[in-house]
Each structure stands twice: as C-alpha cells, then as structure tokens.
From TrEMBL:
SUPFAM superfamilies: Nucleotide-diphospho-sugar transferases. The keyword Cell wall biogenesis/degradation applies. Its main location: membrane. The chain crosses the membrane at residues 33-51, 71-88, 515-531, 561-582, 652-672, 684-703. It is found in: Endomembrane system. It comes from the Eukaryota. It comes from Camelina sativa (False flax). It is a multi-pass membrane protein. Keywords: Cell wall biogenesis/degradation, Glycosyltransferase, Membrane, Transferase, Transmembrane, Transmembrane helix. This is Cellulose synthase-like protein E1 isoform X2. InterPro entries: Cellulose_synth (IPR005150), Nucleotide-diphossugar_trans (IPR029044). The keyword Cell wall biogenesis/degradation applies.
Length: 737
C-alpha cells in the first residue's frame, strides 16, 4: 500500500531504525484482536457441532437403518473437513500487516541512480490475445517513471506470430511520440487505449494529435489482425525483422526469432527518452516440450542477461497494463531499503482488472483475497508469487540463496549491445538439456501453477516477499467476461495448486523447517481448493436430497443444539458481508461472490481434483489453457448489464445445471408436502428448508439461463435437456428407495 503516514495514523509503525526508511510495515492491533475473539467463538461452535454429531444419536428409520447411519457419518466427516479447513484459512488473517512506501525519499537518496529494470511481457496467441492489446501493455510500461537508459521492455511471443511482431514494430514507432508525451504531461494511465478511453472527448490539441497517431496505428494493427496477415507495405518498411520467419514456420515449429527494435542507450533514443524494446519468440519444435509460460520466462531471463541484464525484473501478463507510472519506484522503496529490504526477494502487486462490473458478476476481483488474505500472508513471511505484477531480484529468481554474496553485474554486459544472432542459442529448444533451468534456476517446471512453486522455492531459500496494495491500482488487466472462461481458469489454478500439494514441492514437507507454520498453512489454503470440492458437493447434495426424503440432518430450531449451527451460519456470513463491504464491495457483489464460489467448488475445483487424480494414475496430462481476452459485442453488452453468460456446451455446465435442477425439484417437493398440511416437516427440518431455499435463490441466474432467456448467452438447449432429465431421473429413483 503506497501512501504516506497521514493516511492512517491508527497504524502502529514497527520500524525502529534511526535513518529514514524507504518503507514502513504497520499493524492494526485493535482489529486483529477483535478478529481473534470472533474466530475463537466460531471455532468453539464448530467443536460443539462435532460433539453433536458424535454424541447425539440419529433418529433411525427401521426400514433404512444402514443408510441413515451412513448419511450421519458422511455429514460428520464433511463437517470435520469444513472445520479444519476453516482453521487453516485463519493463518492468512491472524497477523496482517500493511506496507507504506515513501518514493520521495527514494528520489532524494538515489535520484536517477537506480538499478536497471527489465520488464517481461508474455503473450502466446494473437487470436485470443489481440496484438493491439499486447502493445498497449508494452507502451504502458515503456512510459514508466524510470530513467529510460536503465529500462528495457521484452515481449515474449510464444505464438511466433508475424502479426504480434508487426504490432510491436508499429508500437516502437509510436513510442517515439507517446513516451515523451507521457513524461512531459504526467499522463496516467500510460496505456494509450486506457488513457484515451478515460479522457473521452476532453483532449487538448496536443493530446488530440497524439490520439490521432494512435488511432491510425491501431487501425493498421486491427486491419492486419482481421486479415490474418501483415500488409506487404509493412513487410517492405520493416523488412529486416520479417526475414527471420521461415516460409513453413508455424506456431509450434519455428526457430528463434529475436529482434532489438529500439536500443534505449543510443544517443538518439536517450534524447527522446525511449527505453530498449526487444521482441523474442523462442525456438519451438514438436518433439520438444516447451514448458509453457515458465519456459518463456526462462528464455527471457537468459536472453536479457546478454542484452541489458536488469538487476530487477518486472513480469506482466500481456493484458496487464501499467495504471501507475510510479509503480517501479514503489517496489524499489522496499527492495532498496537499507535495513529490511535486503531480505525481500520480490514485491507482489495485486491482480486487478479494469473491466469489472459494478457488482463484479464473476467475482474476479477477489476483494477479500487481495485486501485481507494477501495482507495476512505478508505478515507470515510474504505473499505468494502469482505470475504477474511482480518485481523480482534477477539473481534470486536465478537461484541465489538468502545470505549468499550478491554477484556484481559485469560492466561489459551492459556497455554495448550484443548482436542478436550471437545469443539466439539461449532461446533454443535444446539449451536447457542437462542444466538446472526449471529446477534450481529460473521459473520451476512441471506444474500448471509454476509461479506458485517458484515463489515457494524462493521463500524456502530464506527469502521473504512483500505485498503492495495501493489505493490506485498499479496494474490493471482484462477479467473473464463469461462464466465458462472463469470456470476454466479456476479449474487450471485448482488443479495446479493440488498438484503442488502432492508433489515434491508440497509446502507441508518442502517448506518444513524453512518457512513458518503460518506461511505453510497459507499455501495449503490454495492447495486444498480442489479436494474441498468433494465435501462441499456431498454436503449440499445430501442436504436437499434428505429434505426430499424427509430425513432430518440437523437439530430442531427449538433445540439448544441448534445454537452452534445457527451461530456459525449467521455470524460467519455476516462477518463475510461486513468484510466485503469494508473492502469496497456492494451487497450484490457479495451475493455474486457467494454464487461464484459455489459454482467454482462444485465444478472447477471438482474437475481440477479429478484431473489431478487422472494425471497421477497416468491417464491424462496437464494442459495450459490461455484465457481468451476477446468477447463479441452482444456478449460484451450482456456483461455490462451483469447478465450471466453461458452460451457454450461444457461438462461443467452440465454438472451445474443438474445440481441446480435437482435442488429445485427437491425444494419444490418439500414445499408441496408443507402445503398439504404436513407441518412436522418444517419443525424437524427447518434448517434444511432454509439451506435448500437459499440455494434455489442463489441459483436464479442459472435457472433463468436454462429456462427463461432466449439470447445467445443462455444455457445451450442440449445442456438444459440433459440436466432436467438427469435430475428428474434421480428424484424418481430416490422416491422409490
């Protein structure tokens, strides 16, 4: 959080140095104590719930003795899991800290004598990651408030696309106008598209001239993207770069393509404040595994070490543009602090988005995760590395342990530019053979969430990390605009995190004795996403199926045993709502988040769990799925109106649809029994009525998409029919059991 002391005088500083620090770490002790009292009370009620399940006998139907006992036992196991998982999640809330940076002190102390900064931007597919969006990210970081002769921007194109290269060459030309314009007029944000969008028609004559140049560039790039080829006049203009593409080159079969478009240390570029711009597409061959984004990052590490060799590295996803030009200075306040900064390996900024709807339809902001959980992890040794918006020390990501002497950067590496042909081998398919790259050096291989295990390995070498969450978000990206995109993304994340738990890098044994218990539990919170899907699914299904059959699972509302159940349900959700509102959300946003987490747990996480089990059995292999950053106009309008987008056939939608319809049918049957005069049902199963009814309400957008909507974003008819048939069949079979 980059702000001055005056922003929160209730925070207690813990820095005791006499010299002016570049940052301070503060704790809000009053709120922490209040939360600890709250969490202790909740845990006491959880223990009472366990005690109830173990000691209070179930009312057994003589005709269903075995089934009743089995259901009771399954409920006990699920509640034990929920309780223990809740305890694990408290690790990220037990010791929160806030970071406050002082960039003015950094400027007074260092001036422009700052370390070299290399920015890595990664893209992989010009169709779902449009080149115009990619170069907006590149231009935004090229205009950072940083000495241009010490700044370099590298674009890694794993798609090996001429379209992306063409877009970057156009951006390199436009940068000669855009970067000086940003520096002269303190433009924020420094992404041309974002800046012009924020200004609308309120541009002066100078800005309008720049805007017109951008529109012309954007039109050329979008025309080329629409046609799927680079115009011949562009090939003639930028001919040298395009000669590196073979006639038969494809996305998965091509040689290394490396082009230094701008040398930021040449006199003519220094005069106009343009940083170094480099395009890299590493070699790919079908017979060699390329290790996805991790492999691209490691190729960038090696290639950049021979060109600019920045001591600090910022890595960004191609859609994550710089929203604050001073973000690098905020990060350096921590990394260059004489006292506490020496133990910090990387500074992580939150992953935020500029296209989130007012009520965050798909819960992509994860407000509580950013404003509470990551801050809590920071107090336990540092946040996780999340793969974007992160400033690293180069030597640390390349393997240096905490306490080892820092190697000096050799002057000849940065005094003159090396010819690209001399270093292309560093990005070849065979370079890493029989080396420690992907193991002890660079980003780790072998997991869909390579960033998580890389950050864990760094922390296990003795380093800490820091989390900065300023009020003005430093980096903004593109959030998924339909439900399927979001579910696929979380399926990959949950699968990868679960694989980490079962791998040699499991925080349970890999981190034992190397990092604190709080940080180990913090990692486990995410690693347990996938297996948590099973008890959530079983518990919710049993609740409404037993309501359908008239089997009570909870104590009567009039019983004293109901108090712990009611307390945990009401108080935990009330605190969750209050916390969400405190983090800047809305009530509808909180409600949307409850729905989305239910869908994630019963689809994304469940599929991530089964995918991991299948992989362990050797039945399938992990795949890296790129989230599309493109939506058609109608879908975009529905997203703005906060209408949930389905639109495609998916096994995850079939599962959600079936569970939703099964829940609806069970609730309808129970209401019909109640309406027929059987009031005993509500007296003995009132809590089940409430839970099932809430699930019906929370699923309303699902029912709407399946049964009421006619637009293209509705649930596909085939999925709706299958879901209804399966749910009706299950209810029919259950009725005769």
């Amino acid at each position: 959080m980059a702000m001055g002391k005056e922003d929160d005088n209730r925070c207690k500083p813990v820095h005791d140095g006499h010299s002016e620090p570049l940052f301070e770490t503060r704790r809000k002790t009053g709120r922490v104590i209040a939360y600890r009292v709250f969490s202790v009370s909740v845990f006491a009620c959880i223990c009472l719930i366990w005690f109830y399940r173990v000691t209070v006998p179930i009312k057994i139907d003589v005709n269903r003795t075995g089934i009743d006992r089995l259901i009771w036992f399954v409920m006990l196991v699920a509640e034990i899991w929920f309780g223990l998982y809740w305890v694990v999640t408290q690790s990220s809330r037990w010791n929160p800290v806030w970071r406050f940076t002082f960039p003015d002190r950094l400027s007074r102390r260092y001036g422009n004598d700052l370390p070299r900064l290399d920015v890595f931007v990664c893209t992989a597919d010009p169709v779902i990651e449009p080149p115009l969006m990619v170069v907006n990210t590149v231009l935004s970081v090229a205009a950072l408030d940083y000495p241009p002769e010490k700044l370099a921007v590298y674009l890694s194109d794993d798609g090996g696309s001429e379209l992306t290269f063409y877009a970057l060459t156009e951006a390199a030309e436009f940068a000669k106008t855009w970067v000086p314009f940003c520096k002269r007029f303190n433009v924020e944000p420094t992404s041309p598209a974002a800046y012009l969008s924020s200004k609308g028609n309120g541009l002066d004559s100078t800005a309008e001239e720049v805007a017109e140049l951008y529109r012309e560039m954007a039109a050329r790039i979008e025309t080329a993207s629409r046609l799927g080829r680079v115009p011949e006049e562009a090939r003639l203009k930028y001919g040298e770069g395009f000669t590196q593409w073979d006639a038969d080159a494809t996305r998965r079969n091509h040689g290394t393509i490396l082009q230094i478009l701008v040398d930021g240390r040449e006199e003519n570029t220094i005069a106009i404040e343009i940083p170094t711009l480099v395009y890299l597409s590493r070699e790919k061959r079908p017979q060699h595994h390329h290790n996805f984004k991790a492999g691209a990052m490691n190729a960038l590490l090696r290639v950049s070490s021979k060109i600019t060799c920045g001591k600090i590295i910022l890595n960004l996803d191609c859609d994550m543009y710089a929203n604050n030009s001073k973000s690098a200075r905020d990060a350096l306040c921590i990394l260059l602090d004489e006292k506490e900064g020496k133990e910090i390996a990387f500074v992580q900024f939150p992953q935020c988005f500029d296209n989130v709807t007012r009520n965050d339809l798909y819960a992509t902001m994860m407000r509580v995760g950013v404003d509470v959980e990551f801050i809590g992890l920071d107090g336990n040794g540092g946040p996780l590395y999340i793969g974007t918006g992160c400033f690293h020390r180069r030597d640390v990501i390349c393997g240096r342990k905490y306490g080892e002497e820092e190697e000096e950067v050799k002057s000849e590496k940065v005094q003159e530019m090396i010819e690209p042909e001399m270093i292309k081998d560093l990005a070849s398919c065979t370079y890493e053979a029989n080396t420690q790259w992907g193991k002890e050096m660079g980003v780790k291989y072998g997991c869909p969430v390579e960033d998580v295990i890389t950050g864990l390995a760094i922390q296990c070498r003795g380093w800490k990390s820091a989390f900065l969450n300023p009020e003005k978000k430093d980096f903004l990206g593109v959030a998924p605009t339909n439900l399927h995109q979001m579910l696929v993304q979380h399926r990959r994340w949950s699968e990868g995190d679960f694989q980490v738990l079962l791998s040699e890098y499991s925080p349970v044994w890999y981190g034992k004795g190397k990092i604190g218990l709080g940080l180990i539990l913090g990692y486990c919170c995410y690693c347990l996403w996938a297996p948590s899907s099973v008890p959530v699914l079983v518990y919710s299904v049993l609740t409404f199926l037993c309501l359908f059959k008239g089997i009570p699972l909870f104590p009567k509302v009039s019983s004293s045993w109901f108090i712990p159940f009611g307390y945990v349900t009401v108080v935990v959700n009330a605190y969750s709502l209050a916390e969400f509102l405190w983090c800047g959300g809305t009530f509808r946003g909180w409600w949307n988040e409850q729905r989305v987490w239910l869908y994630r747990r019963t689809s994304s996480f469940l599929f991530g769990f089964t995918d991991t089990i299948m992989k362990l059995l050797g039945v399938s292999e992990s795949a890296f799925v790129i989230t599309s950053k493109v939506a058609d106009e109608e879908a975009a309008e529905r997203y703005k109106d906060e209408v949930m987008e389905f639109g495609v056939e998916s096994p995850m939608f079939l599962l959600l649809g079936t569970l939703g319809m099964l829940n609806l049918f069970c609730f309808a049957a129970a209401v019909m029994r109640l309406a027929s005069g059987d009031g005993g049902d509500f007296k003995t199963m009132g809590f089940q009525f409430v839970i099932t009814g809430i699930l019906v309400v929370i699923n309303w957008p699902l029912y709407e998409g399946m049964l009421l909507r006619k637009d293209k974003g509705k649930m596909p008819t085939s999925v709706t029919v299958k879901s209804v048939v399966i749910a009706l069949s299950a209810c029919t079979c259950l009725a005769f059991l």
